[in-house]
Design a protein that fits this description.
alpha+beta; SH3 type barrels; Alpha-Beta Plaits; 5-stranded antiparallel sheet; 4-stranded antiparallel sheet; 16 helices
Amino acid sequence: MSFFSALWQEARDAHTHWLVALCLVALVTRRYSPHPHRMRVLSFWVAAHLVALAVNAGLRTSELHAHNEFRTVSWVFGAVAFVGAGMSVVFHGLLARARVSLPRIVEDVIVGLLSVLAAVTAASRAGANLSGIIATSAVITAVLGFSLQDVIGNVASGLALQLDTSIDVDDWIKVNDLTGRVVEVNWRYTAIETRNWETVLIPNLQLLRNPVTVLGRRGGNPRLLRRWVYFHVDWHHQPSDVIEVVQAAVRGAELARVAADPAPSCVLMDMTDTFGKYALRYWLTDLAADDPTDSDVRTRIYFALQRADIPLATPQRALTVAHESPDAPQAKTAKQTERRKAVLKAVGFFDSLDESEFDELARTLRYAPFTAGEVITRQGAEAHWLYLIEDGTATVQLRDGARVREVATLKAPTVFGEMSLFTGSPRTATVTAVTDVECFRLDSSAFQRVVARRPELAEHFAAVLAERGAALQAAQETLGAEATRLSRDHIEKDLFDRIRSFLKLR
């Protein structure tokens, strides 16, 4: 018998043609597989089967009795390859198209058990005596089980974790002092990535033996994690005022990664002799960005307290007694007044005021800084202040239903909010800080006192506002010079009447 005739006969006896056909189907479906290395394993078993067939055919041609042993080997390799190809078609062909996904470790267990069963069946059909192998394997199994008990424990633990889905890929977990995101649950270990760009491999057995906290998970709810931002304020300010200021600032900020529902809340956590310990509690939507979001929240808290003239408490560790000149407070106040006067004069809106009126308004200005991205005024809100920007940039936006468009950019030094201050109308636009903004607020009551003493100022301010309004209208509607003049005259008369009515001027 020739070699090729013997090879053909061995291939028919081992049903190699069915194995090749199934492997071709597996190759077609391999694009659905998330684990390409399994195709390399399948290729190994197919190649081993073909090599064993060739060796067995050569021995059979040479009429050597050893070809029976190689027949058993080739059949075992073929059976294992047949199981691997068949399971690849099932898992990554049929189930993938049905959108059914099984954990990798479950697939490995099924493939492993079926491979062992197929190998034993193939060896038995090839005529191998398995009694001695089984007895020997029992002893080997006992020895390996004792020496590899930790490895076996990790494998069993990994299987348990996959089956009960207590820990899934993309979950954020905390084990002892380690926190990270699960990226893989393997046979031996679970891999998690920390926020420090570290990948930590935790043995599966350790996960089952230690308490594991799954962060942000609650049945039927989105993944959120509550964060606590602490700060201290002394007892010169009532807790209710502090809570109201901080809570309103963060709730209205629309910060990225801060959930709107549940809403952030501020609570008084503890009381000491000199200050109260507060906490702003918010819900984090992106668990990977805890520290950056905490920083954004702290920034909003700081600026909100600054605007409300509520300083953060300073821990007192030492008492220093220093002699201060009696004129020091007056000098400090005078310096602050000069700064505020400079802002009032720089914007050009108050040019008609005399020096005493500048002094009066300067003393009533309140420092109101805003951080980048913070809303200074909101469209439709009730107006109480006029704002003067000393440093920084802000943007003006109009909302029309769901549409929001930017209409202007404010750069220091400038003033805005004057229309609402003079007429009492709600805010017509939303102004948001683009950079950190050094800003002052002018209270409406202080300004009304100045105008009440000099009613002629109402006409001046109406003219200035009309000039601005007409210029904006001309830009939006591309009006000509004459149309712009008529529009300005109409706006000025209307504003003058509204200002006189709102301020109750004679």
